[in-house]
């Protein structure tokens, strides 16, 4: 069994590049702390399960990827995290996914010819997207999640605090992600005015409201009223341009109280 180094009294580097320069057992123990304790307990995750746990953090790089597969032959990781140093010496969460690998899979990540869709930015698999939407998933989800965001945020906060920083930075890929992060206390570095504009434009009498015309399965007339419905419509191009350029942050131990869609329900 792998002996995990004691990192409780270790002074952590202030960057992922600095952590990546440490000896492998130490940096892997540090990154292991990014997995929420309840997830570790639920799936029995340990550094010994090398065929299932991947920690990709090469020396002299500024990023880390964690992948945990509940079964060695699983298509999708149960837990996936990608973080990187920013140009202004902060640490950003680029992508975090938690999949219920026992749930049905929706192949929205590949088109009917097997080519990657890149979250629908390059190409789309409309039949699979329709199935996913009807099953209650949001854009970008290939499987139902485990609903543990409430546990993930404090885990990230502890990690960031140990590196000497006072905020988490995150880049939501979808509209619903941004709303979720708002509800967990994040504010906007950039994109707040855009989120407010989206809220106004998609309301009744808003400049884009008439586009909820049923012309596609993602533009049902009632979709404007729900977070998930709006997110699918935005993914479908209802804004006339891609959703993006949103950057958010959360001060450690602080709740920003931002609500750009205060009456939105899932």
Task: Provide structural commentary.
By secondary structure, this protein is α+β, with helices and mostly antiparallel strands. The protein has a single domain, classed as Aminopeptidase (3-Layer(aba) Sandwich), CATH 3.40.630.30. Helix content is 27%, strand content 14%. It is built from eight helices and seven strands, in the order H-H-H-E-E-E-E-H-H-E-H-E-H-H-E. The chain has helices at 16-20, 24-32, 37-43, 126-134, 149-162, 175-183, 192-201, 227-235, and strands at residues 53-56, 63-68, 79-85, 91-98, 167-170, 187-190, 247-251. It has a seven-stranded mixed beta sheet. Strand 3 (79-85) and strand 4 form a beta hairpin. The protein is globular and about 60 Å long.
List the SSEs and their pairings.
Layout (H helix, E strand, L loop, with lengths): L15 H5 L3 H9 L4 H7 L9 E4 L6 E6 L10 E7 L5 E8 L27 H9 L14 H14 L4 E4 L4 H9 L3 E4 L1 H10 L25 H9 L11 E5 L15
Parallel strand pairs: 4-5
Antiparallel strand pairs: 1-2, 2-3, 3-4, 5-7, 6-7
Order of helices and strands: HHHEEEEHHEHEHHE
Strand residue percentage: 5-15%
CATH hierarchy, class: Alpha Beta
Query: How big is the Rg?
Result: 20 Å
Low-pLDDT regions: none
User: Structural class, from secondary structure content?
Assistant: alpha+beta
The termini sit apart by 44 Å
Structure described in brief:
The protein is α+β, with helices and mostly antiparallel strands.
Properties at a glance:
alpha+beta, 27% helix, 266 residues, single chain, 7 strands, Aminopeptidase, seven-stranded mixed beta sheet
């Amino acid at each position: 069994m792998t002996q995990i180094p004691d990192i409780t009294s270790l002074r952590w580097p202030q960057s992922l590049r600095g952590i990546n320069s440490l000896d492998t057992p130490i940096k892997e123990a540090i990154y292991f702390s990014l997995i929420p304790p309840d997830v570790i307990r639920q799936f029995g995750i340990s550094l010994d399960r090398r065929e299932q746990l991947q920690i990709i953090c090469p020396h002299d790089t500024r990023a880390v990827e964690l992948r945990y597969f509940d079964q060695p032959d699983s298509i999708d990781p149960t837990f996936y995290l990608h973080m990187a140093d920013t140009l202004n010496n902060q640490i950003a969460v680029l992508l975090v996914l938690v999949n219920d690998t026992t749930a049905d899979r929706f192949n929205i990540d590949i088109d009917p010819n097997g080519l990657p869709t890149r979250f629908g930015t390059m190409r789309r698999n409309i039949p699979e997207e329709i199935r996913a939407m009807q099953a209650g998933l949001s854009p970008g989800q290939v499987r139902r999640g485990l609903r543990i965001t409430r546990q993930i945020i404090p885990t990230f906060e502890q990690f960031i605090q140990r590196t000497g920083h006072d905020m988490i930075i995150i880049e939501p890929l979808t509209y619903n992600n941004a709303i979720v992060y708002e509800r967990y206390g994040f504010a906007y570095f950039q994109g707040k005015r855009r989120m407010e504009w989206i809220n106004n434009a998609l309301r009744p009498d808003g400049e884009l409201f008439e586009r909820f015309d049923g012309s596609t399965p993602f533009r049902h007339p009632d979709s404007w009223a729900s977070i998930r419905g709006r997110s699918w419509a935005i993914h479908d191009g209802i804004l006339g341009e891609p959703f993006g350029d949103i950057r958010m942050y959360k001060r450690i131990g602080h709740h920003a109280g931002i609500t750009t869609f205060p009456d939105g329900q899932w």
